[in-house]
Prior knowledge:
By secondary structure, the protein is an alpha/beta fold. Among the domains are: 8-170 and 253-264, 3-Layer(aba) Sandwich (Rossmann fold); 326-529, Ribonuclease H-like superfamily/Ribonuclease H (Nucleotidyltransferase, domain 5, 2-Layer Sandwich); 567-685, Taq DNA Polymerase, Chain T, domain 4 (Up-down Bundle); 731-860, Orthogonal Bundle (DNA polymerase, domain 1). It is built from 38 helices and 25 strands. The strands form seven sheets. The protein has a six-stranded mixed sheet with strand order 3-2-1-4-5-6. Strands 7-10-9-8-13-14 form a six-stranded mixed sheet. Strands 23-24-20-25 form a four-stranded antiparallel sheet. The longest helix is centred in the last third of the chain and has 33 residues, at 855-887. The radius of gyration is 32 Å and the shape is globular.
Amino acid sequence: MSFGKGCHLHLIDGSAFIFRAYHALPPLTRKSDGLPVGAVAGFANMIYRYIEEARGADAPTHAAVIFDYSSKTFRNEIYPAYKENRPPAPEDLRPQFPLTRAATKAFNLACLEIEGYEADDIIATLARQAREAGGRVTIISSDKDLMQLVGGGVAMLDAMKNLAIGPEEVEAKFGVRPEKVVDVQALAGDSVDNVPGAPGIGIKTAAQLIADYGDLETLLARAGEIKQPKRRETLINFADQIRVSKQLVTLCDTVPLDFGLETLEVKEPDPQALMDFLNQMEFRTLTKRVADKFGLAAPLASEGARGDSVAAKWADGAAPQPRIDPQAVPEAPIDPAAYATIRDAETLEAWLAEARAKGVLAVDTETTSLDEMRADLVGISLATAPGKACYIPLGHTAGGDDLFGGSARVEGQMDFEAALALLKPVLEDEAILKIGQNMKYDWKIFARHGIRVAPFDDTMLMSYALFSGLHGHGMDALSEEYLGHRPIPIKELIGAGKSQITFDKVPLDKATPYAAEDADVTLRLWRAFKPQLSRARVTTVYETLERPLVPVLAEMEMAGVKVDTSVLARMSNVFAQRMAGLEEEIQTLAGQPFNVGSPKQLGEILFDGMGVPGGQKGKTGAYATGADVLEDITTMDDHKEAAALAAKVLDWRQISKLKSTYTDALQAHLNPDTGRVHTSYSIAGANTGRLASTDPNLQNIPVRSDEGRRIREAFIAPAGRKIVSLDYSQIELRILAHVADLPEMKEAFRQGIDIHAMTASEMFGVPVEGMDPMIRRQAKAINFGVIYGISGFGLARNLRIPRAEAQGFIDRYFERFPGIRAYMESTVAFAKEHGFVQTLFGRKIHTPEINAKGPGAGFAKRAAINAPIQGAAADVIRRAMIRMPAAIAGLPARMLLQVHDELIFEVEEGEVEPLIATARAVMEGAADPAVRLSVPLVVDAGQGANWAEAH
Length: 951
């Protein structure tokens, strides 16, 4: 078939496929001889998937897979240092290169490589020929170097993300249209390929220069007109180097070819030839898949390549991700003694020039407090490469050195404002990726000084996306786990307890190794984690649910919420009186005075004095009197006085907690500068994706008690404004109905029927109209309890009914809704096989204890059952929060708090309804388009002068 108008050529970047396959799978070897075949397995699966997905109306008529012949090409003659900094291919990958070519031929695809040219040059040549012949071209790759070819009938496709790349996408990445990409690359250079470019000029600046002057040659000819002295000198002094760089980045589209486009016609694979190759490689899973497709009998081969089943599952996104090998990223040893202290602007400018050239910069701050709203900035650390890190001291002081006996500034530091003035353009430069660990903290510190850090990556959140459920995500723990390095402990510098000092009192010779090490370790963790995101198939989770949430939460935390301290003070007095009354009632029931706040004395009263059976003593000899123990006692009909006493103690503890944790503590948390309370949200605190609130914790204010609701009265709107609350209605039950495919529940949600009344009616055979509130309450407890894998024992506690009766409710529930049990069983089975569960949005929650025996086994199963439901609900509200700032940008409103399924706003009085309409639309549509839920999301809204009125 000749190639001409109406033909469609697919050009597959084979080298990119190989390296993606190699890094995506654990090491695999052929069982018969130990030959490494992991990359071949992944490559073959990718090619097979490509062939299957390329069928259809827009299927290619011609296709080829293009490889790099070797690392040396004509570009090394132009510039001998080209790509010299690239490490050699891994030893176990080298023997797999020819096998990937054999795999391509086995699938009956054209396999192309030409000595002296890169694969990109061959692709450029074939694309030009196809375009000139009147055909269309799709380049299957995400390589930025190929983007210069886009346009005029040539498009790109990132097959891993199923993302089409056209002229608009190229312009979004480079700031210029495809035909100007080589000019921008020539200026910006490329540290990966060792293309020198213009020192100190990044992508963003390069794009602006090309936009201003039209093209590279015009820019260089008129370089003397540029106002910025350094930029002008760079372009004049490095003009020849820039022109050489353009030669290096420009693809050659005149590669001599000894074949025509017509030879690339798509052909079906020869089933027997393909089966022979796959069987020779001992890929049992893929061999069976191909055999089934062609209606052949799979050969009875040996046991297959070691790990082949894992490889196949990984290719399908099912198998658990292997742990990162710290040796997989060989780098220079960490040596804190080698770090630099920056004391002047000239030295800092040199470091920032290197950051611009590389496009990557790790950054960390040192401050006087963990409270970002009150902390003073003491210093900033940077890292531009593994082992190359520095510290910029800005606010170190020595006590008692000035005339008034206060703190005197230590000599040898940069001027505070001058340092920030130099850092600001780099920290805000879109062409330089900033890397941090727990970036939200540093983002807020910089924001308080007028710097908005962007773009950035956060190694804590990368770890969270990759390893949620396996371990914590603090930098020290990650360093030990994945770098084999124990960072300098902060206590060695600042001490502990009463003698602890703040970081500004740490001497510079000790501050530099500690602070710069943080930046160095963070950069190394980023280099280890970044490639793993795509291999673990959590890139979308990180990019859409984790990273974009950082500035949203930071802005909310900085906004804070106004609190009426007089209301809190009155409540503290009321709670104190209520506690005193309860203490008197409790001591009367006990028949003697005792300290109600003492678990030891309470245990003696209940188990020794009142004869309650089943008391368990701990190592200290005291009885256990936790809430679960007291809840059990409240259900004992044959120990009524003890049951009443236990109930009163639970009430006393609840009020005591409200007083100490909220009405007393909230007053202490009031920021004197803003007059508001500023909570801090932990993004990576809960395995399921739920946010945690600390300092103060505003997530756990009980909403179902009168006392808890009264505490919310203290959260107020300023004069002329209102508090608005929007709350998802029963979101976890709605998600359960969707994932477990429960027809009755889904229909009830669609019809707006009271789901708890419907459940009670289904279970107990009573009409919804005129239903006894107690029966509805029981159904509600079961509905929500089932999500958490509640047992009969737990339900009995919640409802304060006999255990047998509670278990009967649960049994009846499963009989009426069998889909729920099926969901639970399938979820636990999946967790046992794969080591994780997953939400609708791709979040992975690892379940390392799922196969454990003993007391922990039940908890692990319940956690696995609940995680996809609670995690999906958390993902939905995260998606809503991320979209919210842009949606309400035109309104005089701001988002203040997130409390589980609720968002709280502050808005001018006259704009309440527009805010509710806008925010409700965002929240109810938050799952789309990633997931099409089979039940509607419903958001309840309220408004008032305070939070209690609004909710």
